[in-house]
Amino acid sequence: MIHSLFLINSAGDIFLEKHWKSVVSRSVCDYFFEAQEKAVDVENVPPVIPTPHHYLISIYQDKIFFVAVIQTEVPPLFVIEFLHRVVEMFRDYFGECSEAAIKENVVTVYELLEEMLDNGFPLATESNILKELIRPPTILRSVVNSITGSSNVGETLPTGQLSIIPWRRAEVKYTNNEAYFDVVEEIDAILDKSGSTVFAEIQGVIDASIKLSGMPDLTLSFMNPRLLDDVSFHPCVRFKRWESERVLSFIPPDGNFRLMDYQVSSQNLVAIPVYVNHNINFKESGSSGRFDVTVGLKQNMGKSVEGVIMTVHMPKVVLNMNLTPTQGTYTYDPVTKILTWDIGKINPQKVPNLKGVICLQSGAPKPEENPNLNIQFRIQQLAVSGIKVNRLDMFGEKYKPFKGVKYVTKAGKFQVRT
Amino acid sequence: MRKAEAMSASSAYNDEKGASSNIGEPEYGHDPASGGIFSSDYKRHDDLKEMLDSNKDSLKLEAMKRIVAMIARGKNASDLFPAVVKNVACKNIEVKKLVYVYLVRYAEEQQDLALLSISTFQRGLKDPNQLIRASALRVLSSIRVTIIVPIMMLAIKEAASDMSPYVRKTAAHAIPKLYSLDPDQKDQLIEVIEKLLADKTTLVAGSVVMAFEEVCPERIDLIHKNYRKLCNLLIDVEEWGQVVIINMLTRYARTQFLNPNHNESLLEESAEKAFYGSDEEETEEKDEKEEVAALAKRKAYVMDPDHRLLLRNTKPLLQSRNAAVVMAVAQLYFHLAPKAEVGVIAKAQVRLMRSHSEVQYVVLQNVATMSIKRRGMFEPYLKSFYIRSTDPTQIKVLKLEVLTNLANETNISTILREFQTYIKSMDKDFVAASIQAIGRCATNIGEVRDTCLNGLVQLLSNRDELVVAESVVVIKKLLQMQPAQHSDIIKHMAKLTDSIQVPMARASILWLIGEYCEHVPKIAPDVLRKMAKSFTNEEDIVKLQIINLAAKLYLTNSKQTKLLTQYVLNLAKYDQNYDIRDRARFIRQLIVPTEKSGVLSKYAKKLFLALKPAPVFESPFKDRDHFQLGSLSHLLNAKATGYQELPAWPDVAPDPSVRNVELDEVISPSEGRIGLLGDWREVPEWTKCSSREKRKEKVEKPFYSDSEGESGPTESADSESELPSELESGGGSGSEEGGSGSGSEESDEGSESGKEKKKKPEKIKVRKTLPESAESEHSGEEEKSVRKRKERKASSESSSEEEEESSSESSSSESESEEESESEPETKKKKKITLSKPAPKEPKNEVSLLDLDDFIPTPSPQMTPINNIVSNSLANDLQGLSFTDSSLSPTMISPSFSSVKTYELLHRITGEGLAVEYCFSRQPCSLDPHMVAVQIQFSNNTDTEAKSLRIQEPKLMSGMRMQEFPEIEVLAPGETVTVSMGIDFCDSTQAANFQLCTQTRKFYVSIQPPVGELMMPVFMSENEFKKEQGHLMGMNEINEKLTLGEKCQSDHAIVQRVTSAANLSRVPCGSDREYRFAAKTVTSGSLVLVTVVTKEGKAAQLTVNCEKMVIGTMLVKDILQALSQ
Q1: Distance (Å, whole) CA B833 – CA B200
Q2: Cβ–Cβ contacts within 10 Å for residue B1100, how many?
Q3: ipTM
Q4: Euclidean distance between CA atoms A193 and B342, whole angstroms
Q5: Is the CB of residue B917 less than 8 Å from the CB of residue B905?
Q6: Which among A47, B162, B175, B835 is placed 20 to 30 Å from B441, CA to CA?
Q7: What is the DSSP code (8-state) at residue B185?
Q8: Which residues contact B477 (CB under 8 A, 6 or more apart)?
Q9: A395 touching chain B per CB within 8 A
Q10: Contact A375, A276 (CB under 8 A)
């Protein structure tokens, strides 16, 4: 299936290659570079590029292109999903997926890639299994290894490989047994000029961090599971239990993982916590314009709205902006034409405002359209959909674990049309 | 040092060329620890060799790490082969692994040397450690050296019957490797594949199907015997295997089953034609004919149970976190499922659009194709395809495509409004695509053509050249479709020639005027006049079009334009551009008749004014679904290497019995058999896994078996109480397992196994239930509530219990018995949990369930003896309610729809002359929306005034509330007064007891609502209804078969009886055999959905979906009675 993999950095250097079948010359990447040139923007590089003898399927993550070379028919999503899994694995092992981290741990990377694919077909992609085969690098371990000469590679078959719960390794032991859940919800919305909602939905995830000894069997129940409209689960979740009882019943993997993704049914009106008043205009004659934006709280549900950041892609003719914020700081990058206003926490008494003059390229026609405003924000301890975890029960083990749930609401793709 | 760096730069260049000339490179003493791996290892080869030859593992490891780093960078390290290969037998496992990496990379280049390592692997194949066996096989099969093909073949064969499933998996992986090395081995490899396909572990399944797809995808016959097993194992296979298996099974199903949409697809096509085509009448006629034919055929079609099995077992995978799995299921449903069921995949696909942009890109491509064929599926998610300015252009264009496909008469206005914002975007490619999209909407939907045209005309004044050009082009195309009606637009565009400067737009306008000069006979010559004036200043393309215009006008209206044309042609004759000069010369010869001009000029008119066909706006995704969706070929719209065509449906289904396997192989594989092939150690795990599968299936059953479904808790409670009925019900549910109860071949297998499974749990039950039944008279009803409570509490299931439970077959009655078989203390514990939690609903439900039994006069045959203790206490509560059944008697139903039944609260005689009646007005209670409005009518039949009528001491269950009516001060003799009050019954049929006081007397009375009054109607559309119904499946769904009463055959009668039995509102429905009603409960607002489907004769089926199961159960009984009388 997957023939070879090339990692290409933003400068266009191939800094890692791995072949699972016979060797494919790296000149095949020329087709990729060609497409990249044509696309201008990195995000517009088509994920699938046909070449005379191969197909290139690529993803772009952390300023690195992962280009997989395919020779025969294969579902493109299969490859894309796998490449993303590789990226996740790198992040898991090295904390980040940068060029530097990969170069530094090139041998581990190679060992990982060797284990993840066999003849181009995924072999082991569960982090729990891989960590038994190849231990993640830590400073302590590298010191120990250099002294004792022991290795980072496991000698026995990971227990997960053979069991029906491949995601969990056996014989896990912790002195403090903890199970923490983060319920993170993102509001995706498009607001139109007048501030009314064109489209809004809530997407949520539940990330778990579970450090429990033995083989715990957990049951997580919600106060109001009916809110969840569409869900996808980590393979550990027993789907039929969910179908019949609306509880999440699972034997968790060890460590951090995403338990579920959900979408809140669109019928329920989504509460939009902020409002944006804007007045942006470009003068027909002359080379200036006015910019006046206010961000305020609409419904904050008793919680404070923090980390508010507004980013605006200004039209190309905007040379510079002279603005005064009543709160926070702003930057305008004349090269990328991106205005960023870091507001911070919104104080309901004093509404943040950013006002000033836009300098336009003289002589150029005024922009047709006002730029869209992208808003980010964060509300701690609130799940905007109202979803609530009811309780967590553990079976199969004797000890009492520490349990905790944290709620966060964030802006997802939150856009205001002007 | 500097010199060294210079050297490194120069020889690095050589290195990249793959030259091995640097063997003799001088050695520079770098400290191995200090140098970065990437900087200068090329010249350390001697050094590396030395390290590899040493007997210290740490040195070897260091050397191997650096070599691997070189390979990773794509540097040539082949000259180290002899030194590395020696270490293949190294004890250190990490060194060994890295040597393997090296070997696999270079063995092809150094075949002879590679052979040295073979014996090590052969030894490894016999190692007691399964990981070593597996990795030896992995490397051996990855070494691409033709000489060792026989050795590989032998090793694969041996490994295919290894005890360890992991080794067998590796063997499956090795098959395609050997095949690509030597295709002649195909026949032998197929044998191995056949053997491995029979393997029952989930670990092997994905890999062997992968091998099957690469080696012998055409041998579909190998799948027959394993089909059911693969379907059943599917959910437990790892994600990547799932994708491969699902894709393969899609192809398999296409060859083995009949098209479930055969009739619909015919209909659909004709409908589509009617939509686009011109003569609609004709198609309509055809439509009808086809419909008749289709109806005739539809009855004949029965879905193969195996087909159903596949659909059922893949559906849960739509919830997978892996986008590839979701896509695989989606394409399977798209290609295989009946049209009505395909809808389920839409939501999952929309979900995928939240993922990485690459995933979005692929998903959108597929959605674009699907949305052409099945527009309705994605319509509810229209807004999810709205475009954000931050989307990459390629995503924007795809979303636009989907939006265009989804546009229809109803949503076009919203879509056009969206498009309007897109046109202003800064991304000009996207704007151009938006304009084209508008054009396509305009062609497809006649109603908005004019609006679109006007909008596009406005765009002509846009400053951006691209926008104008694109709009002119689109307008041109639109006008070509019906030019006669749009002469005013052509006139408008003619005026624009004064203002528009964009050459492309000017040229397009001129072409339009020339082409349709007959529609604008007065303006056209004038435009030519203006153009002739400015000819010299125009751009070349405009000049060419001026010449064209002149020629066309000359041919149609030579009187007015003869001189102008000649003037233009003369100007062109001396133009700088030779293209224009040529054109002028050519046209002059053609149109101006001279002595010399030949035959051609006769045809000049035909040449210039030929009818040009209107351009077709077609989606680039049209008909792309002949490629299997989700495939690479579909994405590229071109056949990729190795693509397997999706076969067309067969006309006649092949023999389904080929999939039959001996019973024990599919359902309960005997453990001994595995023992022959595999590890004994694995056996328990395996059985666990299969039982996990079954457990899942069991719970799933109610969701997918559509009609006869486990018909609610009543039945199971019943079978629970009577042992003899046990076997029957078990057999019944067993046959259902075979799929959708279509009652065909599969059933004998299913039911047999069901009975077989029965034996064990039954024994347990007999033992356990005896003491219990003595204790609590073994009331079915109570058990029901106990069970409910348990389920709601998400009771613990220790793994052993689970296993036990799962070993029983799907009948729910048995799962109950399992729960009963739990030790008593445990049950008590659970009860405690229940009490400790603030859950007021629990006890109430229990009671109300019982009081239902109390007031239904003729208990249905399923009724079980009532628990005495509870019912006694209830008897008090329910006094005076003997009239309740009257609510159900048809005689009470007055013909008018809105008429209400009145109930007696206080009889004239007991009330000493004061008669009180009440009725449920079915109006929303004005005082509190959560209350049921009750109207009370007092009539004074005495001779004296009744004074201060009021309510006192309401005795209400916890949670219930009552809004009393204002005190009636005086009621004159013979008078009647009506007051209204509100009672919040908390969605239970528990009576509200209170005292009715007059000045002198107190009467104990109670109001008990029939369950049908606890709700108020809600209005919803058919789609909403279906959606909601989808949410309320399983436990929340109650099915009941019934026979319609004599007087209850007509539509009107059915609707009337249902609406009078309960406060429901009718939901529109396409089918005339189906009646839908909806309401929500007054207190909690839970939806209550009622569906009545009439069948042949008097038979009908009643389905009630309600979150509150108690309400649902009671409602079913009420409606059942209303309909069957």
Answers
A1: 41
A2: 24
A3: 0.91
A4: 37
A5: yes
A6: A47
A7: G
A8: B439, B443, B614, B615, B617
A9: yes
A10: yes
Structure tokens at A116: 């993840």
Amino acid at B1003: F
A144/A131 Cα distance (integer angstroms):
18
The first and second tokens of residue B561, run together, are 């334009």
Kindly report, residue by residue over A70-100, the tens digit of the pLDDT. Answer: 998 999 999 999 999 999 999 988 888 899 9
Take residue A213 and report the two structure tokens written for it. 């000894």
Beta bridge partners of B830: none
- Provide, as residue numbers in chain B, all residues whose Cβ is less than 8 Å from the Cβ of A73: 631-633, 640-644
Q: Are A217 and A398 in contact (CB under 8 A)?
A: no
Nearest to B424 among A60, A106, A369 (CB): A369
Predicted confidence (pLDDT) per residue in B465-491, tens digit:
778 778 887 888 888 777 667 777 788
pTM of the model: 0.66
What's A370's DSSP letter?
A: P
pLDDT computed for residue A120 by the predictor: 86
- Picking from A215, A8, A2, the residue whose alpha carbon sits closest to that of residue A125 is A2
Q: What is the number of residues in chain A?
A: 418
Provide the pLDDT for residue B610. Answer: 78
C-alpha atoms less than 13 angstroms from C-alpha of B718 in its C-beta half-sphere: 15
Contacts of A288 (CB under 8 A, 6+ apart): A282, A357, A358, A359, A360
Q: Please name the helix (run of DSSP H) or strand (run of DSSP E) that holds residue B378, with its range, or none.
A: helix B375-378
Please compute Rg for chain B using Cα positions. 41
Query: Which residues, given as ranges, of chain B have pLDDT below 50?
Result: 1-42, 268-287, 294, 297-298, 663-898
Of the partner residues A21, A46, A230, the one whose CB lies closest to the CB of residue B351: A230
Cα separation, B1019 vs B1014, in Å, equals: 16
The B residues from 63 to 122 touching A (CB cutoff 8 Å) are 65, 68-69, 71-74, 92-95, 97-98, 100-101, 105, 108
Contacts of B581 (CB under 8 A, 6+ apart): B572, B573, B574, B575
Q: Assess B142–A contact: CB distance below 8 Å, yes or no.
A: yes
Q: Is A50 exposed, middle or buried (0-12, 13-18, 19+ CB in 10 A)?
A: middle
A216 versus B902: which is more confidently predicted?
A216
Instruction: Write out the H or E segment, with its range, that includes residue B313.
Output: helix B305-314
* B57, B240, B351: residue with CB nearest A263: B351
Find chain B residues with C-beta within 8 A of A15's C-beta. Answer: 73
Q: Tokens at residue A360, please?
A: 């336009």
**Residue A404: beta bridge partners?**
A180
CA A91 – CA A103 distance, rounded (Å): 14
State the DSSP H helix or E strand holding residue A14, giving kind and residue range, or none if neither. Answer: strand A14-19
